């Protein structure tokens, strides 16, 4: 029986394991994870902290029992500390002290990512929190209940930072949001969009501290204030959300790595050793918007790469079709979605890029119920006309619309093809001159 070992059983690992166990009954699957839980949806963390959901109960979709029922050997709270890639052996130790030396024919690395830690004084103080695991969220919530926490400073105004700033504000905390960049969500949207999010955050009382670099976190035992190159802010809790780095510790000396340390994989999710696959946040992914290998840490990518690796490891050739880094966020009533690259990023990467913008209401003016303004930007290459990115925002749920642009980028569609794309009209849903069409028609 062919032996497949999977290291890491969160989103990427879970997708790979379920694909193998559901489709290839002849494989012997062994799973190691250092954590005591499987499949925690980090995306629910802000909802849980912000009291928008009653508990963490629904934030898991898989378990040890599910894997075991399907025939896998599961070792949780068991850390893999070494891999002998020549002898094809995995070495692990359980919390109970038990040692494992497990041979593999195929190995799937799904060790994910770790939060970036700033190299500043004071990160070891009490109430300086990272937010990645279920345990991290639980600890934040426990401390919020136990302690007199009034001032929360969130460092990093990316996706995690903005979502958590809202969550802490919802439960009555005084929130300061710090970022070195000149705006929030700068990796995902152009300034015309991020300004709208900033206004939204400020209108709810969140203090924005952009273009500030944290120099130290101060306190006696427990955090008391955070100091930046420009100001200092009182803090009873500091939450660090300044990005993820790939966790490639186990293979970094043997396998080929990307510039940020992620395992470099091909379209079959194979690393530089053909019997070793890497998936999710520990691996690279092909980015169709820039037509290059990239690093994009998202649960959606983790799941898809897990499925691809599982089929290939089990002998069914399957190529990844790449991704566009499609993403979305909803902060109070404001919904923002994007895919591909922003105009700013396109220019930085050397594209001769332009954007076409349009603003309209979702439905005709005579529909007075549930009718909101929508703002759209489509970024494309001036010469090839190929769509490179799209951004949308509204109080209306426009989220499904971004998927069309995701497919357009995947398929290298030009802005001109979009001009006459068949978009239906019904006043309940949209306008006869839809804003996609209008934005495309207004392209240079
Ligand atoms: C607060 C928050 C909100 C998020 N929201 C979204 C969202 O809305 N949408 C979205 O697409 N993405 C979101 N993400 C990102 C998403 O969670 C990650 O992209 C995803 O978790 C990656 O899955 P993964 O399985 O590759 O890695 P991870 O989730 O990092 O899992 C890696 C697993 O490997 C195990 N492991 C690591 N090293 C070892 C070892 N040596 N031995 C044994 N086990 C090991 C770990 O215990 C862990 O279980 C969010 C992340 C956070 C933190
Ligand atoms: N809704 C979603 O899809 C969602 C939600 C949460 C997380 N995620 C994903 O999880 C991953 C991690 O999220 P994240 O928010 O940590 O990363 P991020 O890349 O979204 O944001 C990190 C932010 O930290 C800032 N930053 C970096 N170094 C800093 C420093 N020293 N001081 C102050 N600011 C600094 C950056 O300018 C950036 O705005 C990302 O890949 C993200 O896309 C997605």
TrEMBL record:
Q: Which reaction does it catalyse?
A: 2 NADH + O2 + 2 H(+) = 2 NAD(+) + 2 H2O
Organism whose genome encodes this protein: Lacrimispora xylanolytica
Which of UniProt's keywords are assigned here?
A: FAD, Flavoprotein, NAD, Oxidoreductase, Redox-active center
Catalytic class of the enzyme: oxidoreductase
Q: Which residues cross the membrane?
A: none
Mind telling me which InterPro entries this protein's record contains?
Answer: FAD-bd_OxRdtase (IPR050260), FAD/NAD-bd_sf (IPR036188), FAD/NAD-binding_dom (IPR023753), FAD/NAD-linked_Rdtase_dimer_sf (IPR016156), NOXase (IPR058076), Pyr_nucl-diS_OxRdtase_dimer (IPR004099)
Q: Provide the protein name.
A: NADH oxidase
Per its UniProt record, what PANTHER family does this chain match? NAD(P)H SULFUR OXIDOREDUCTASE (COA-DEPENDENT) (PTHR43429:SF1), PYRIDINE NUCLEOTIDE-DISULFIDE OXIDOREDUCTASE DOMAIN-CONTAINING (PTHR43429)
Q: Where is the FAD/NAD(P)-binding domain?
A: 3-306
Q: Which domain of life is it from?
A: Bacteria
Q: Which parts of the sequence belong to the Pyridine nucleotide-disulphide oxidoreductase dimerisation domain?
A: 330-430
List the cofactors. FAD
């Amino acid at each position: 029986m062919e032996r497949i070992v999977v290291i890491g059983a969160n989103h990427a690992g879970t997708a790979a394991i379920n694909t193998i166990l559901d489709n290839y009954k002849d494989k012997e699957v062994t799973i190691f994870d250092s954590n005591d839980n499987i499949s925690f949806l980090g995306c629910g963390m802000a909802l849980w902290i912000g009291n928008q959901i009653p508990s963490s109960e629904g934030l898991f979709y898989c378990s040890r029992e599910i894997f075991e029922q399907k025939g896998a050997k599961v070792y949780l709270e068991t850390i893999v500390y070494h891999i002998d890639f020549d002898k094809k052996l995995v070495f692990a130790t359980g919390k109970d002290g038990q040692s494992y030396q497990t041979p593999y024919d195929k190995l799937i690395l799904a060790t994910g990512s770790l939060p970036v830690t700033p190299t500043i004084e004071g990160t070891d103080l009490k109430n300086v929190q990272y937010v990645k695991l279920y345990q991290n969220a639980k600890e934040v919530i426990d401390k919020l209940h136990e302690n007199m926490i009034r001032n929360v400073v969130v460092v990093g105004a990316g996706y995690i930072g903005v979502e958590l700033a809202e969550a802490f504000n919802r439960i009555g905390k005084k929130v300061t949001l710090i970022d070195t960049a000149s705006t929030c969500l700068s990796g995902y949207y152009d300034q015309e969009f991020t300004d709208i999010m900033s206004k939204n955050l400020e209108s709810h009382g969140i203090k924005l501290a952009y273009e500030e670099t944290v120099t130290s976190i101060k306190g006696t035992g427990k955090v008391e204030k955070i100091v930046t190159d420009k100001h200092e802010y009182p803090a009873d809790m500091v939450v660090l959300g300044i990005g993820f780095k790939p966790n490639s510790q186990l293979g970094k000396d043997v396998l080929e790595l990307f510039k940020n340390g992620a395992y470099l994989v091909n379209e079959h999710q194979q690393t530089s050793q053909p019997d070793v696959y890497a998936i999710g946040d520990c691996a690279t992914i092909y980015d169709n918007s820039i037509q290059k290998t990239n690093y994009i840490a998202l649960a959606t990518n983790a799941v898809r790469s897990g499925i691809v690796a599982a089929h290939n490891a089990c002998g069914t050739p399957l190529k990844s079709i790449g991704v566009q880094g499609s993403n979305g966020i909803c902060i109070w009533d404001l919904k923002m979605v994007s895919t591909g690259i922003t105009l700013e990023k396109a220019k930085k990467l050397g594209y001769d890029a332009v954007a076409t913008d349009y603003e309209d209401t979702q439905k005709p003016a005579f529909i007075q119920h549930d009718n909101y303004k929508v703002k759209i930007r489509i970024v494309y290459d001036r010469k090839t006309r190929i769509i490179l990115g799209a951004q949308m925002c509204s109080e209306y749920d426009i989220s499904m619309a971004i998927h069309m642009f995701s497919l357009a980028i995947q398929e290298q569609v030009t802005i001109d093809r979009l001009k006459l794309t068949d978009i239906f009209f019904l006043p309940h849903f949209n306008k006869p001159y839809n804003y996609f069409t209008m934005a495309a028609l207004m392209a240079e």
